[in-house]
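The aim of this short unit is practical: by the end, you should be able to scan a pair of folded records and say something sensible about each. We start with the first protein, listed as its amino acid sequence and then its structure tokens.
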Amino acid sequence: MKYRKPRIGLVTISDNREKAHNELLPVNKQFEDYVVNTIHKRDDIELVVSETIVHTAKEAVEAANKMNAAGIDGLIMNFTIWVYPNLAVILARNIDKPLLMLSNLHPEHAGLVGMMASAGSLDQLGIKNYRVWGDIALPEVYERVVSFAKAAAVVSRLKGSVYGMFGGRSMGMYTGVAEQSVWMKKFGIDCEHIDEMEILRNAELVDKGRIEKAFQWMSNNIGKIHYNGAGLTEEKLHYQIACYLATKDMVKERELDFIGIKCQPEMGNHHITQCLTQAFLNDPYDMEGEKDITVVSCENDMDGGLTMQILHLLTGLPTLFFDFRHYDTENDVFVFANCGSQSTYYAARSDDYKKNLSKVQCFAQTPEFYPAGGATIRYMACEGPLTCARLSRKDGEYRMVIFPVEVRTFPEEKMKETSNEWPQAFIKINVTPEQLIDIYGSNHAHAVAGNVVNELIKVCDMLDIKPIVLK
């Protein structure tokens, strides 16, 4: 899967006094090289290193301009000796990116002193900064640097991105709608509204041979397709594929970074459900080969889609869109389901799409809710750790609930206890269900593989969002 590493600048700051700067230049260079070589060796960050060790105001401005031109996601200010704190302030005022103050621990030199004086100066000006000190080769120190870099990349890459809104509010859900001006002001995200009819119009224009090839790929790779002559027929599946390919093409043509599709009730009542789109755009593959992941939010849930985009930018992985369907008291697990689709990657969490799709079955959509029909993407999520999260608003203020979980599996029959035709995950949380439900601000949950709790906390802090961590 494609993952774009954080692009982080590094500027070493020095003493403004010419004699001190010149005499300690070898020390500055030695520790800068140590930091750079350690980061390069681990290869988690794309590092942009300043050509100059900054010791004058003019050099600080020039370094900032070069970092801006390099398109960095965040900046590390490196402190090895005592520095003039005004240099850090000038640098920070000319770079509108997250800032990390980094100092080695060395008793012969006053790097920590310089860092604290500089960080305190930024505090006085209201410039947010993060601090890491110690030997960067130590895992606990290095991981804090990487955690900052990943969070900074998320915040940086949200700015200037475009959310494609296919349709408006779905089924009366206030939680699915966000104020566009707030998104631009807080996150730097533009919202492009596109009528759902554009999906249907463009579906008619998709090459029939392309649709047939995709149909054969699904027929050969999906574990089982349960045609029933009504809600799910070959004709309806062809139509769903056409809608998916049309939406995929529009995402590329309109340069959309992530999208939401209203779907309900119009598509499900009168045309076809958009479950294939929700599955395959969120996947790193489809019937046309490997591809970039495009986050898709069901029911045009804007804050849900934004949560998923943050999780994706942090990890490069597919993300999940769930409903809080049920709490199983006997097995102490939540049943998180989706009303028809989710990324097929989580059927087996394999880099081989064939292994994932072999565990997927397609059923006809639930007729009482979706009379127009269409195929669902049904599977039981495989075992493994997830980080669940959700952006929501309480009295207009954003917050994010974050909770690490484990996915459990059960015999296939258990899926019939809720909606057998829908994808499901059995979620074991680390707090009581009351603790989660009492503070949670939506019916939707979102997740990504692994544990990114610390990174999400940093993202929230950078965006002035309250994190609520349950673990």
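Turning to the second protein, read its sequence before its tokens, just as you did above.
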Amino acid sequence: SELCRSKLQKNTQLTRIEFMLEQILKQNEK
């Protein structure tokens, strides 16, 4: 359970970073 939770946290952080990267890329396209 603890391991699963930490994995989930890492996934959430990754998703957040990917989202930020997408936003930056979109801004660069303008």
